[in-house]
Design brief:
The chain is an alpha/beta fold. It has a single domain, classed as Alpha-Beta Barrel (TIM Barrel), CATH 3.20.20. Helices cover 47% and strands 15% of the residues. The chain has 16 helices and 11 strands. The strands form 2 sheets. An 8-stranded parallel beta barrel has the order 1-2-3-4-7-8-9-11, surrounded by 7 helices. Helix 3 links the parallel strand 2 and strand 3. The protein is globular. The chain starts with a strand and ends with a helix.
């Protein structure tokens, strides 16, 4: 198994009571609560942590994109990826991913990603997403156009990477007389494309058809297994057998000497993540037109927000793994076998977790977990497990 260090870069100094009064940490939580001095300190703290992950032996470091929220301070992840492209010497560098339907010029992503691929000499992973519903409120884009804007933007980006220019692109939403991206990507034909999703059936189906790696966001492990089985089923319909390397699970892991200590230490920070930073009304998460009814039902079932949850509930449902090294090893192996994935996108920092505890957690994972999973593949029959 490959284990990546996935960072959300939350504004961990946020006023949790103010978020509660506002009803969400997204879009309507006023930026008057952002302290630039503290925020600047967090950017450097988080970049230091990702460089530390590289030195500890994590297989990759991951960034993502969100707008107008204390949940994650990465509206332009390419800025942070550029800062890491030279300082991260060994690990893969992934942006999971850029919300391309929000952009009026997706060619900027083709250029940005090609630059990062060159800077890392081919260690870059290109994540592409539609973006969650809240992003459409933040950016003023019609959510009913999300899927077709994504499809056009994706097509144009891949063609810009693979077809010698200049050429013309004419679509419903995008029209360019000259597509002639400089630089070209370092990897041939282009960086690997990974597709994160909350569980949209159309996204899973499309990712399988394209043979892209599918990344399931924070969800109970039983639902993760179902979504991954959907991917395998769609792959079979497309004439091939999906491998575990095409499936990645986004999770949270916290390790301490004993189960009791791990639960005690992680509790306030993990519950802050789930009950404050992730909180948003349904109409913000899933605005009208964003997804079809079946996908909305699946996404709502997969989300860990909606009602306050304790760390015990999150651990029991397999949303997170918290405990001693032995407990974490057992659970991660059990979940790998259940769902059939071979990449763990692991948040080692979450919510309000401070730097010293994050680093201790990273060291514990590097020393106690990574060596045991370095050559481990999923065991058993994932079809039966998913059912």
């Amino acid at each position: 198994m490959k284990i990546f260090n996935f960072h959300l870069m939350p504004y961990r100094h946020a006023d949790l009571d103010a978020i509660e009064r506002n009803g969400s940490a997204w879009v309507t939580y006023s930026n008057r609560d952002y302290d630039p001095e503290k925020g600047a300190g967090l950017y450097h703290e988080y970049l230091d942590q990702m460089e530390f992950a590289d030195r500890l032996g994590f297989d990759g470091v991951c960034l993502n994109e969100h707008h107008q929220t204390a949940y994650g301070m990465m509206p332009i992840p390419g800025v942070l990826a550029g800062a890491l492209a030279r300082s991260v010497k060994r690990a893969k560098l992934a942006i999971l991913g850029r919300a391309i339907p929000l952009l009026n010029n997706p060619l900027m992503v083709a250029e940005e990603y090609a630059m990062l691929d060159n800077l890392t000499r081919g260690r870059f992973i290109a994540g592409l997403v539609r973006g969650i519903g809240a992003e459409y409120h933040a950016m003023g884009i019609n959510p009913a156009q999300s899927q077709e804007r994504f499809a056009e933007a994706h097509e144009m980006i891949v063609r810009a990477w693979t077809v010698p220019g200049p050429f013309q692109y004419v679509g419903k939403h995008y029209h360019f007389n000259y597509v002639n991206t400089w630089p070209r990507p370092y990897q041939t034909p282009h960086p690997p494309i990974w597709i994160p999703s909350q569980g949209s059936g159309s996204t899973i189906r499309w990712a399988a058809q394209m043979r892209y790696t599918y990344c399931q966001t924070l969800s109970p492990i039983a639902l993760v297994a179902r979504f991954f089985q959907m991917y395998r089923d769609e792959a079979e319909k497309s004439g091939y057998q999906a491998t575990p390397d095409q499936l990645a699970w986004s999770n949270t892991i916290y390790v301490a000497e004993t189960d009791q200590k791990a639960m005690r230490e992680a509790r306030p920070h993990l519950e802050a993540l789930v009950n404050r930073f992730l909180k948003m009304p349904t109409e913000m998460l899933l605005p009208p037109g964003y997804s079809n009814i079946d996908s909305i039902k699946r996404i709502r079932a997969a989300k860990v927000t909606g009602k306050p949850q304790t760390i015990e509930e999150l651990v029991k449902s397999g949303v997170v793994i918290v405990g001693s090294p032995n407990t974490v090893r057992e659970k991660l192996a059990e979940y790998q076998d259940l769902a059939g994935f071979n990449t763990s996108l692991t948040k080692t920092q979450f919510g309000t977790l401070p730097d010293d505890m994050t680093r201790a957690n990273m060291v514990a994972i590097a020393e106690e977990i990574l060596p045991h999973f370095r050559n481990r593949l999923p065991q058993g029959k994932q079809q039966a497990a998913a059912e």
